[in-house]
From TrEMBL:
Domain MotA/TolQ/ExbB proton channel, residue spans: 143-261
Organism: Ekhidna lutea
Transmembrane domains' residue ranges: 85-105, 181-204, 224-246
Name of this chain's protein: Biopolymer transport protein ExbB
Localisation per UniProt entry: Cell membrane; Membrane
Amino acid sequence: MKKLLTLLMLAGVFTFSATAQGFSDSANDSTEVDSAAVDSAQAEEVYEEPVEEIAEIVAPEEEAAPSKGFHQVVKEQFIDGGPTFMGIVLACLILGLAIAIERIIHLNMASTNTKKLLADVEDALNAGGADAAKEVCRNTRGPVASIFTQGLMRMSEGIEMVEKSIIAYGSVEMGKLERGMIWISLFISLAPMLGFMGTVIGMIEAFDAIAEAGDVSPALVASGIKVALLTTVGGLIVAVILQLFYNYLVSKVDSIVNSMEDASISLVDLLVKHNLSK
């Protein structure tokens, strides 16, 4: 009897231990499965991020629209303003610049070193008289030398005739220096007026388009006003450019005229001194 109870107890212990071992094995298996699932999920996340980054890098970037150059913008605005008035304004600019450049070259060539010229004339008077001084003036370029030549030609008639000759011929040379300036002034006044005229005509056409459409469309009004104002902008730009050249030319002419007056006074003093030294 005791042996039977002992066998039953041993059988129960072995059965309980086997069952516990089974439960622990199943728990370990489930833990390993869960850990494997977590590892696989993390691996997928790790591999998904580079794939997305690579896809973003490989994906072609959107090409940016090429920016328009200054010449292209000016060309488009010129065409939008209309060829009629914009062409006339452009012609004013071209003609005005041509005259201004010609005047600048002429005035720069007319500039003379008056101090050197007076020194050469004095040396020529002391060495060879009036004829030698006139030869020096003829070989020198510029209005100052021309005035000296006219004064020396009247030297034999007295100092008063020399002064009158210098004053008269000085007015002639001043007129030559100012030649062409009136045309630049005309283009300065004409370009804005043509621009305003183009603006008024453009506004009239814009209102005609509104009347035909029967409705005030913002796009229609804005485009019409823009085209109308482009001629005004063009005329003002031309006037500003030509005004800068005109002011430079006026200052250059004034400088040459002042130099002519000072040199003429010095020449008269030199001739008086030469006559008294005889």
